[in-house]
Specification:
By secondary structure, this protein is an alpha/beta fold. The chain contains 10 helices and 10 strands. β1 and β2 form a beta hairpin.
């Protein structure tokens, strides 16, 4: 299997502020990876750069062997590289069903709209029960399910999730982890940003720790350090 997503020596930021510094990350075909590290150190910036929302100042991004560096977001979405962003970015006055149908606006997604809708409702039965409710009336967990559901309506060839369990209760976090696991087992490769490393290790094959816009550690699940060692990584202590 070849490399699905290849980020090579990418530098990006906001105006004169550089956030990502020559960062290199890869996702192999059929693989799920996790990104973790302190808040404000570039994880979300990396996803926005991959998605075309930020134009990199240097480096190269390729998806399925095609150079997408600086491509328009709509073209990246049409290629099947889909991001479910952090936080509540839904249109509050739109109903659940309307929101999901709107997400399948691209030509390739429209072809699979009915199948994808069934898949979303199977994965998140609560959304099926609330299909006529406005998004703003949903609970925090249900809104996160709807956000991921919108991403699935785009027929992703690679799905990027930015802190999908942020602010959720332990029960909802466990429920959402099960749903994300089902997505992975269905064959959709994932890039997941999360602070909970144990959560990531349960879903992914490899982790990248990002600090100050750089990859400072790559961790293979089969040889992952214990919890205490990972905490030392967070606080800057050497781990051997």
């Amino acid at each position: 299997m070849g490399r699905l997503l290849d980020i090579s020596q990418v530098t990006a930021g906001y105006g004169s502020i550089t956030v990502l510094r020559n960062i290199s990350i890869g996702v192999d075909a059929g693989e799920c990876i996790g990104l973790f590290g302190p808040n404000g150190h570039g994880k979300t910036t990396l996803l926005q750069t991959i998605s075309g929302l930020l134009r990199p100042a240097g480096g190269r991004i390729s998806f399925e062997g095609t150079d997408i560096t600086g491509a328009r977001p709509r073209d990246i979405v049409n290629a099947g590289l889909i991001q479910s962003p952090q936080g509540n970015t839904l249109f509050g006055d739109m109903h659940v069903l309307e929101t999901l149908e709107l997400a399948s606006i691209s030509r390739r997604a429209r072809r699979g709209r009915d199948e994808n809708l069934r898949r979303v409702f199977d994965l998140f039965p609560q959304l099926g029960e609330r299909r006529s409710q406005k998004a703003k009336t949903l609970s925090g967990g249900e809104r996160q399910m709807l956000s991921i559901g919108c991403a699935l309506m785009c027929s992703p060839r690679l799905l990027m999730l930015d802190e999908p369990t942020l602010g959720l209760s332990p029960r909802l976090k466990k429920e959402l982890a099960g749903a994300v696991g089902n997505i992975a087992r269905s064959g959709v490769p994932l890039v997941i940003v999360e602070q909970d490393v144990e959560f990531l290790l349960s879903l992914t094959q490899r982790l990248y720790m990002i600090e100050h816009g750089e990859v400072i550690r790559e961790i293979d699940r089969a040889n992952a350090p214990d919890h205490d060692s990972i905490m030392k990584l967070y606080f800057g202590e050497a781990v051997h």
